[in-house]
Design goal:
single chain; 294 residues; alpha/beta; Rossmann fold; four-stranded parallel sheet; 10 helices; elongated; RapZ-like_N; P-loop_NTPase
């Protein structure tokens, strides 16, 4: 474990985007805790320090925990005295008009205006948070930001080189077992010659070099690979701009044993030069399982 724990306290006006922020910090590799009672914080720090595994924590605090605002300044003072925790406060804000609009849209009640006027609750909350806002190292006005734009700002401000914020999942599958429901991009390679009909390849897979070479060593396969890979490379930056943290590319053949496996392997290894990549073969052992059951 590093010597210092990176702690980000996410707070701000109700309706300003704390839920989006917490989800973004999860994608950034932070251990996120939503609305922990202040009385449990000392024990939580002890457990974090003893674990030796958690290095980044995002603590989301809002008006569901009224006691927090009575204790936050004492807690921050104690944290400032220790070398174990490096603390930053992220304060999310928006104009009163925008907050009213968001509450009207969601039809939710403001925590400080359960039985009164919405604007009265917003004004009370803003007054309560003035000192904390002044103390925050990072203040983001979300008035004119979409959730995607807020994610982008947080990624730029808090990402670390040790935790990439975008990665690829490259998967092979068999159409006879169904299309993966979590796929973003699906490609069919059943137009290629099928190694299943070559006796010495039938019980092998696209991970075996002779089968891989059989699939790839023809002009149709090479032309298709170059065009498909080129297309994927051109659109990945656009997925990143849209705030996607992962893209799943699913490549299918009939049984998910030969052609799709070979192509997923080649595509995944090519992308691994530029992105973190996980390569999986969903149905590679399905035929073996069927034979064993019969």
């Amino acid at each position: 474990m590093t010597d210092t724990l990176d702690l980000v306290i996410i707070t701000g006006m109700s309706g300003a985007g704390k839920t989006v922020a917490m989800q973004s910090f999860e994608d950034l590799g932070y251990f996120c805790v939503d609305n922990m009672p202040p009385a449990l914080l000392p024990k939580f720090w002890e457990l974090v320090k003893e674990s030796g595994k958690i290095t980044k924590v995002a603590l989301v605090i809002d008006l569901r925990s009224y006691a927090f605002y009575d204790q936050i300044h004492d807690m921050l003072a104690k944290l400032d005295e220790t070398s174990f925790v490096s603390t930053r406060i992220l304060f999310l804000d928006a104009t009163d008009a925008e907050l009213v609009s968001r509450y009207k849209e969601t039809r939710r009640s403001h925590p400080l205006a359960m039985e009164g006027r919405l604007m009265d609750g917003i004004k009370r909350e803003r007054a309560m948070l003035t000192e904390l806002r002044n103390r925050a190292q990072v203040v983001i006005d979300t008035t004119n930001l979409s959730p995607r734009q807020l994610r982008e700002k947080l990624f730029v401000g808090f990402k670390s080189a040790s935790h990439p914020t975008f990665h690829l999942e490259v998967m092979s599958f068999g159409f006879k077992y169904g299309i993966p429901i979590d796929a973003d991009i699906v490609m069919d390679v059943r137009f290629l010659p099928n190694p299943y009909y070559v006796p010495e390849f039938r019980n092998r897979t696209g991970l075996d070099k002779p089968v891989f070479d059989y699939v790839m060593n023809n002009q149709a396969a090479e032309d298709f690979y170059q065009q498909f890979y080129g297309l994927l490379r051109s659109i990945m930056p656009q997925y990143q701009k849209e705030g996607k943290s992962a893209v799943t590319i699913a490549i299918g053949c009939t049984g998910g044993q030969h052609r799709s496996v070979a192509f997923a392997k080649r595509i995944g290894e090519a992308f691994a030069q530029d992105y973190p990549v996980d390569i999986t073969h969903r149905d590679i052992d399905k035929r073996k399982e069927t034979v064993n059951r019969s």
